[in-house]
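Human: If only I could read backbone structure tokens as easily as an amino acid sequence. Underneath my words sits a plain record pairing an amino acid chain with its backbone structure tokens. Take your time, and here it is.
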Amino acid sequence: MAIQAGRIRVLKEAEPRRDGAYVLYLVQQANRARFNPALEFAIEEANHLRLPVVACFGLLDGQNGFPEANARHYAFLLQGLADVKAGLEERGVAFVMRRASPAAIAIDLAAKAALLVLDRGYLAIQKRWYGEIVRGVDTRIVQVEGDVVVPVEIASGKHEYGARTLRPKLHRVWDEYIEPLRARRAAVRVDGLDLPSEIDVSDPEAVLAGMSLDRAVAPVRRFLGGERAARARLKAYLAGPFADYGTDRNRPEAGAASHMSPYLHFGQISPVEIALAVRAAKAGTGEDKRSYLEELIVRRELAMNHVFYTARYDSYAHAIPDWARRTLAEHAKDERPRTYTDEELAEGRTHDPYWNAAQAEMRVTGYMHNHLRMYWGKKILEWSPSPEEGFARTLRLNNRYFLDGRDANSFTNVAWVYGLHDRPWARRRIFGTVRYQSENSLKKFDAKSYLRTVERLCAAEGDGRG
């Protein structure tokens, strides 16, 4: 139950400050009070130094907010942070939340810290925050990975061509990382520290109401944020629908998906915790478990590999392979049988009722099944004036409506539509040799049943437009 050495990186070499009043942990990507390697590392170090632990979170909104985040995303985040606050305080760890960037609050509170501990995210904005912190803090800084099963650089030292090249590298090492993590006891509980918190996230709805943000995309009822909700959903899933995962995972109407992606995106549950629970599940066959771990680890961490080794992963020119851009450019002037405006796509007003239903599920509930995400993205490419515009509008829709948008998986899945992690296929109009997906792919599941499912889900959200 130790924290694997491969998860730990020293970002600033220095002895812990002797006059430090506490060990500081910046909560950024791992928004949970349990199964969090960075938090457990901070408690271990604090116990060794005979100091308490202070955790902090910087909340941004308005023009300075997290790029493309809206009321839907912030509601889910704040619900999770309410759990974090309660869980940390139960463990004797202080929680300070302020209106500031993650870098700003960490730099400010680190002035009195013996040691600063960071968790880890792989997006460019997160890397930028970590860089600001390293430049602005004098004390020792240690970063502890808790967002993937196998740390990205340990899995591979380069950008991988696809799942087939990354899979064997992960399989060789993942058993040493799929291990339980013991919750440490804080030997010195917080007492008397004058560290006021500007925001009391115990009432997430009140915090949300006071924020300046885009409210056009509303919070959803389908998913409640937080680690308690994540664990309850995982437990119910493994006791029931998981038994059919191997056969039904590609059938959107079958209910075989675990819906863990929003919780993973916000760091409200550990992928290692999920992997352990899947391995221990009484339901499901060995094939069910292998298939689930393939999606949870290989496919998800292929996305992390992509954004880590691609500086401009949100750019068509940088994220899409040369061969794919060439063939799409060759067919850029091909006649499009149909094109739609951004507004028509967002509102699901196309000729295709199944695409419209998938868009409604995303727009209204914040989720879309992976099988339909592929079809959805390929059709946007087909219906857009150019591949560059198709890429941009797919990313805009993805990041605006999905709860798990603005994620390594999101950027990678959108790029996959345009040829990333794929190979050339038979040449055809518009797509060139980039993989095409026709309406025939809908025959692999009960599409009529899916339409009824979306109608029911949209009605539950109070939106009958699905």
Q: What stands out?
A: The chain has a mean pLDDT of 95.
